[in-house]
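User: structure tokens for this one?
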Amino acid sequence: MLFFAAPLPLYPMPMKNHTHSHSHDKSASFEPAHPMRFAAAKKSTWVSIFINLGLTIMQVLAGFFGKSQSLMADGLHSFADLLSDVLVLFANRHGNRHADANHPYGHARIETATSLILGVSLAALGIGLLIAAGIRLQHPENVQAVHPFTLFIATIALAAKEGMFRYMLAVAQRVRSQMLIANAWHARSDAASSLVVIVGIVGNLLGYTFLDLIAAAVVGVMIAHMGIKFSLDALKELVDTGLDEEEVRAIRHTLKSTPGVLGLHELRTRKMADNALVDAHIMVDPKISVSEGHYIAEAARAAVLREHHVVDVMVHIDPEDDAVAKPNASLPSREVLFKHLADHFGNACDLNHHRVILHYLSGKVDAEILLESGSHLSHTEFVKLQTKCESLSADDLYFRKIQIYQHAAPK
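Assistant:
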């Protein structure tokens, strides 16, 4: 049984030793594992930071002086976006670091942890805004009419957030970043909340003053819903949830289509940020050489890496289907088997001077003994040795079949 770890062509993660680097060298020596994705994420996130900073100041001040609770809530939403953008910058930098001794699979799950923090923060903010709006709605007589200027500010916020969503989604899809896609849809939820704010402000200006608070409550619900969704998605990844059934079927088909693969079992997958890790047990002809089994395993892993969004593949080679039971686990090692044969053969054949191939199959051992050319066994001695092999394998505890060959096999 052999294991082969796949190379990482999509996001190479060479092991680097930084133990001799000084602390002031760390930022200068940083090299992202995927430079294009890192640069795109950094640029789009800085754009979002500047826009959210401007919107936060504008919405909170306009909402406070214009008596609009919904606009202030939307301003706090923009402030939460600002904080989340800072987290995204942190995750983008540290999640793109190469693998090291402590993180042999890389640092991609820093993005996942960041998404979890972002989701929890949004859920807490949304629930807080909802509670605040509910408390104020209990005293509708205290609700004031908003200033018309707040409608203008809300419209500007809506246009800015919708534009930011379209820009960030295009970047995220181009570099295939789950974290950036989540951040883009977060911007779309911001645009939706700004639309709700506009409706609430218009209703307030038309005399239905309570609609502004209703809009603030709806914004809170939208923020909380998005936060809970992000948190659940991140948690699924952190507990090693597998890929969806369709993708698993596609990976299974790719492995089974590899020439030399006779069967497949124990296929396992798990997400890691925007990629996946795959473990698989493939069956090959039990009588082929180790090098040919290695070749088949490499061909199988290369096909998965080439045709699927997978960052690493571990291929386990089996000579038979042992998915349910491990029938060969109790069989002895080569040394013990050699001693067992020597006890029966005596001086007729010194196995240490011949090539012996052992096949552990279905709870028994099939042996092939290839006599070297220098053994000089006569025909009578050879026949006698064959007879001993046949009688031993007839009811032996370990051996099912022992075949002996007079001619030397090439090495």
